[in-house]
Amino acid sequence: MLPGQGIPNTITEETVQGLEGKSIIVTGGARGIGLAMARGLAEGGAHVAVADLNAADARATAETLAVGGGKTIGLEVDVRDRSSVKRMVEATVSAYGRLDVLFSNAGIAQVRPFLDITEDDWHTVMNVNGLGVLIGMQEAIKVFRAQGRGGKLVNTASIAGKQGYDPLAHYCASKFSVVALTQAAARGFGPEGITANAICPGVVATPMWQVIDQGFQDHGLSKSPQEAFNNFAASAVLGRPSQAGDLTGVARFLASSESDFMTGQTLIVDGGMIFD
Ligand SMILES: NC(=O)c1ccc[n+]([C@@H]2O[C@H](COP(=O)([O-])OP(=O)(O)OC[C@H]3O[C@@H](n4cnc5c(N)ncnc54)[C@H](O)[C@@H]3O)[C@@H](O)[C@H]2O)c1
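Above: query sequence and nicotinamide-adenine-dinucleotide SMILES. Below: predicted holo structure tokens.
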């Protein structure tokens, strides 16, 4: 027998296509990076469920995205709450007939000097960024299994999932956990045609950085608005901070059949801040 013979191709005919008609959920899709991803996917013809803690914004965003031939819906979700995540997945399957891709993108940031991080701070950040990603992946995998044709998990990690930064230590820990969950799921479910990959953005101009910038000022770590943002972004060799739209291409790639043979990977899209 030749090498590779007898190994089943777990990726079915139906998934070997572009984005057209794919059923995709984007958590944290109401604004920032999630919104840009959702827009790029919808423009590619995917059916996109924009899911967010902020239900009104999720619905408003979904309405603005109905552009590329795909359908869009806005859903309320709290990624920390399994029953809420189940409702999100069920509503998507009910609207589009199936689920093909879950983007676990919702996240929060918090600035704390290392020695000031409390147990409450740890749980607050980890519950959204770590546990929230785990629950989403678990509920999506159950549906992928029931459907029997594989599926794609795409998690938003960060360069903070690759490097530790002092006043963001618990945030970094949460993002390292996203990379760990991605790799574990890739190993665990690859044989069933379920892939898991992560995207690591750098310094992206979104509302999250307003929170981070303010946190740096509150703790006396920077003096003026935008100072921390500019200082962090200055190391990008491509010479500018990221815009949310810089993440659209990689999101489309990871949702499409172009990435079918890729799993367990973290793609850094940061304008060249860190090299892995
Ligand atoms: N902005 C950056 O520089 C940057 C860099 C690297 C990674 N990231 C990551 O990218 C993702 C998106 O970040 P962003 O900059 O767009 O942030 P953002 O704050 O602009 O948007 C985050 C969205 O997530 C939603 N959300 C928060 N908690 C939620 C919950 N419990 N359930 C459901 N939705 C919830 C918010 O309502 C919001 O719409 C996050 O995971 C973040 O950690 C951001």
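Confidence is low (pLDDT under 50) at residues 6-16.
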